[in-house]
Amino acid sequence: MSLFDKLKKASKGVVDAGAKTMLKTDIVLLDREIKTRKQGFGIEIYDLMEELEANDSLSVTEKEAKIRALFDGARKDIAVIQAKKECKREEILVLEAEHDSDLVASIPPSSGAVLTNTHPAESK
Question: pTM for the whole thing?
């Protein structure tokens, strides 16, 4: 393996580590986004419940429908964010699998013999 190949392989490892760290950061930010959405839902539902309690013109079924609509909207938003998180996790697994396959390819055989593609007479 030439010096250039070694540098190229080392730089790929650094780039992959950086990408993996960035993906983990993205996951943390997505977790924060989920928490923020849930907190927003709490505020929205409280305001709606307060409004519905004061409004006697709506039936119980209509009130439940409004609450359900608010919940369904929040659940949909959170599901979208969860899907983004899952994509980030899969990207991390792909990077780890690529890294692991590179390690396996560079491990010498267990017999201790080094295998080459050159003719034995050329290696003298």
Answer: 0.69
